[in-house]
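Subject: Protein entry, chain in single-letter code together with its fold tokens

Area: Proteins and the way their chains fold up in space.

Attached in line: The record itself begins immediately under this heading.
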Amino acid sequence: MAEHAHDPHDHADHGHARAPIPSTAPAGHGHSHGGGHAHGAGHSHGGGGHSHAPATFGRAFAIGISLNIAFVVIEAIYGFASESMALVADAGHNLSDVLGLLVAWIASVLVKRTPTPRFTYGLRGSSILAALFNAVFLLVATGAIAWEAIVRLVAPEPQPVAGLTVMVVAGLGILVNGATAWLFASGKGSDINIRGAYLHMLADAAVSAGVVVTGLIIVLTGAAWIDPLVSLVIAGLIVWATWGLLRDSVVMSLSAVPPGIDPAAVGTYLRARAGVADLHDLHIWPMSTTDIALTAHLVMAEGHPGNGFLIATAEELRSRFGIGHATLQIEEAGGPACALAGDCTV
């Protein structure tokens, strides 16, 4: 079982747009190992390649970062000039998003790096780290906004705010952030890293909309205390919107089974394959925000079933469950017991 059969496949480019759920992209990997963990058995890659993240995201990152840098400068200048905490907070939030977009962009490039002897999966996991960083950084920035808003809210005399200036500048923010969010909208459901960038921009557009309302109220009533109060409300909305991103990125960083995949159903499918007598040591985890891997030990009464079995199994794992990189270790029924037979049996 030393032969290795590969279909055409490029390991150097894994910028997938597939969500961690079943998809219709071409098949992923199917590996077979002989006894123990030696790579001495059939190794087959079932299918041509993977679906790739749209090339426009590189352009989206460049446009989004450029627009937000320019807007941060404008908003900070007019925020300090108009004494608006909401406007200054929005500028600070936009600055954090510039960094968030930059991190997400770097990650989207790193996931395509060629695997090395040290990083055998390449740097695909960097997209998970980027999503986690974006979630944490967004929450920290929101906390800073909330703190400053509280300080201003409890001050004996609220600082006067130039409401009209606030409205005009924040209105520009809605356009900038809304347009940037739109650039990432097509990838928000398929890649948590892109989703992080999208949520960043959508949150900023919401903040800017709130600031416009703040400016209008101040113009109509002269109530400057509305400014920090609205900042607190917006901060709460951002935390609520970001919590899901934080939860998902933490779970992915801990190699949990991706959402949308039932490990019991995967185990049932593998056990039902022709010739499979038993199954153990099943693991399913995200290699990146778009790549899912699986390893499993299959006990087969007739021994190794051949590459056709591996290719067909890999294809069905991909089409049914969205698992694109499957490694299957074949063990003979009645042979020496596998040392891992008691681990993670599903």
In short: The first helix runs from residue 56 to 82. The helical segments are 56-82, 85-110, 126-153, 163-184, 192-221, 226-253, 263-271, 307-321.
